[in-house]
From TrEMBL:
Organism: Yimella lutea
ABC transporter domain location: 6-240
UniProt GO MF annotations: ATP binding; ATP hydrolysis activity
Entry's family note: Belongs to the ABC transporter superfamily.
Organism ancestry: Bacteria, Bacillati, Actinomycetota, Actinomycetes, Micrococcales
Protein name (Swiss-Prot/TrEMBL): Zinc transport system ATP-binding protein
Keywords recorded for this protein, A-Z: ATP-binding, Nucleotide-binding, Transport
InterPro entries: AAA+_ATPase, ABC_transporter-like_ATP-bd, ABC_transporter-like_CS, Metal_Ion_Import_ABC, P-loop_NTPase
Keyword Ribosomal protein: no
SUPFAM superfamilies hit by this protein: P-loop containing nucleoside triphosphate hydrolases
Pfam family, one: ABC_tran
PROSITE patterns reported in the protein's UniProt record: ABC_TRANSPORTER_1, ABC_TRANSPORTER_2
């Protein structure tokens, strides 16, 4: 059996002593791609920040590759793409310079970037399909390309776990498709990923498992097929009240299932 990337037992996270999310119990084996879904304000970001030591663990047990969050070792093993992160138009830096900052945790602060750092940056940019834009100014890139630069920055640290908070949100449909292709490739390469998202349709064929956090607790944990079945149940329950709603109706479903109903095999992305 593959070792756990993440192991939570009744874990609680929050800020300044106030619990935001608790009762989190699940294991994430290495190589798994897990989507974390749930309504706004339910505690998804607080959970991932808790793994990074950016929110407080306020109860239970949490281990990332066997170590408690907040440790230096854990921070080195996680690559993190924060929520709604874009690069300001005023940033004067090249793609290489930005991605290179993903290497800072991997060498003493006084040592300049070396051959290994440059190789890691080149490999990360190739992984996100921006190998030909190394010397471009980031301010000249589109929003979707900047998002890929930030994923490359996280990958440059050669992480064992890649955590992304809404990686496909706020970019146009074409960029979303490219980002989905990038995530697909990373999944095929065996990258363990935890993706906070509202856009499960964009991630079809990528995600192995869905965890829902609602009202500060764990509301669902299962496969995409099980998720689709649950969503269909929710939709039909609503339909039986007003009689005019069908499966996949985005008005009724919290997460549009769209053409992928989770039962028939998803189309290739
Ligand atoms: P989600 O990611 O599901 O939208 P969040 O984890 O961002 O939810 O927020 C959950 C709750 O935690 C909200 O009530 C929010 O106000 C609170 N919260 C988020 N960040 C902080 C913070 N840095 N300090 C205190 N409370 C916070």
């Amino acid at each position: 059996m593959s070792p756990s990337a993440l192991r939570l037992n009744d874990a609680a996270f929050g800020y300044g002593g106030r619990v935001v999310v608790d009762g989190l119990t699940f294991d994430v084996p290495t190589g798994q791609v897990m989507a974390v879904v749930g309504p706004n304000g339910s505690g998804k970001s607080t959970f991932v920040k808790g793994l990074l030591g950016l929110a407080d663990q306020l109860g239970g047990d949490a281990a990332v590759f066997g170590d408690p969050p907040r440790t230096r070792e854990v921070r080195r093993r996680i690559g993190y793409v924060p929520q709604r992160h874009t690069l300001s138009a005023s940033v004067r830096a090249t793609v290489r310079e930005i991605v290179e900052t993903g290497r800072l945790a991997h060498r003493p602060w006084y040592r300049p970037a070396g051959a290994d750092d440059r190789a890691a940056v080149d490999a990360a940019l190739a992984q996100v399909g921006l190998g030909d834009r190394v010397d471009a100014e980031v301010s000249d890139l589109s929003g979707g390309q900047q998002r890929r630069v930030l994923i490359a920055r996280a990958l440059a640290g050669r992480p064992d776990l890649l955590i992304m908070d809404e990686p496909t949100a706020g970019v146009d449909t074409a960029s979303q498709t490219v980002l989905a292709e990038v995530l697909h490739r990373l999944a095929d390469e065996g990258t363990t990923m935890l993706i906070v998202t509202h856009e499960l349709v964009a991630l079809r064929g990528i995600v192995d498992r869905i965890v829902e956090i609602a009202q500060g607790g764990l509301a669902f944990d299962g496969t995409p097929v099980e998720w689709a079945e649950q969503e269909r149940g929710r939709i039909l329950a609503t339909a039986s009240h007003d009689g005019h709603c069908g499966p996949g109706d985005p008005e009724r479903s919290t997460y549009a299932i769209g053409p992928w109903d989770g039962i028939t095999p998803p189309p290739a992305v």
